[in-house]
Design a protein that fits this description.
alpha+beta; Chloramphenicol Acetyltransferase; 13 helices; acyltransferase; lipid metabolism; diacylglycerol O-acyltransferase
Length: 472
Amino acid sequence: MSPKQIPMSAVDRAWLRMDTPQNPMMICGVWTLEHPISMNRLRHTIETRFLCFSRFRQRVVDTGDRAYWQDDPLFDLDNHLHQIALPGKADKAELQKLVSDMNSTSLDFRQPLWQMHYIDNYEGGGALLIRIHHCIADGISLVRVMLSLTDKTPEPKLKRVATKPQAGHKPTSTIQRTLNRLVDSAHVATDQARLFIQSVREEPNYPLKLASTASSVAMDLVKLGLAPFEPKTGLKQPLSGRKQVAWAEPLDLADVKACAKALGGTINDALLCTVTGALQRHFAAHKETIPDCGIRVAVPFNLRPLDQPIETLGNKFGLVLVTLPVEVQDPLMCFRQVQENMNRLKRSYQAQVTYSLLDIFGRGPDVIERRALDLLSSKASAVLTNVPGPKDALYLAGSKLTQPMFWVPQSGNIGIGMSILSYAGTVQFGITVDKAIHADPDAVMDYFRQSFEALSHAALAGRPGAHKRKAS
């Protein structure tokens, strides 16, 4: 008897079908560790805290018109966890080469879609390279799952992550599943009607507000479809499928907070402005004309409550197109423009619209999704993710995690992915660039720090007493 098949959600199936040789749909991460760790202890941690999520024991069965999750009857952890060592000096450059190569290599679809490589001989310690397919879950969920492998102290008791059994463990007939869906739909409809009547009683103008919201959603959908294509720059090129990965030395989170506070904005505003300045420096270094209308980046917007425990995986986020004003040279003016753009997006329904579109694409023919994906990806030059991480240092299998970093996949013809992650009082910044795009990832890392220093100096220079504190 073959293992039971669980239907894949439409949104997860949309991400599955985005996978191409040029852009494998993998979320890739690397953790550097202060000391070497025991492979036996790492295996035990993965078995008790990672494999408790059934998705990591399941492979994908794609029949063309539908996709399913199916338990892998031959699952073996040795097929997914490997131990290797770096050649030569085993320094950051060697590790970046390895991560670049792995980030360019697709996962094996005959097995559950994830891989981990423990790397010995890295700067006196070790590193863990992680690759997980996007159809399993969104980046924020996967970061939380991976962080559940860690502890707050070097020698804690290993505890299993509390999870609810994922759907589909009890065999049910097709008729029973259909009846269940009908009953669920009836319950949802009844609840919605009750809430609507209650809202009208409490607030007589509620129907007008509802109509206004529907109108706003429709307008955001039209705006997304009519948004102009990205300007032609060196950031938009036919892709080769070979990636180059780099990460910067971390910024001090306290410095970023101070900069944002001085400007009356958020940490996210300051970091987006810093990214904008880094791209300005890239254009200048390549003597490339800077687009006078800015460039756009696709930013994932989480739709899953962060205060809820991880119980099921899957993708629950939308995308928003953020305009980076690379044409604005003054750091303070650039910050104000970024802040204004972000405030406008926060009032929109663009994330919900794109999530709904992914749900629709995942239910339709592959050719329609491809065309829609090409259309949407032509309206952004890069993907940018900003994920809040833990405030305190963590330990993996007894070794301190010194620097975590991850890279999001790009879709369609987008060849640049940028990632920001806060961790233990620092801000990590990384980038992955397709080799066909003439951008040096290490240089962009330098531009990122230069850009933040310029913004911070301009922000703090206007504060009372700032010059005195600097002089002292």
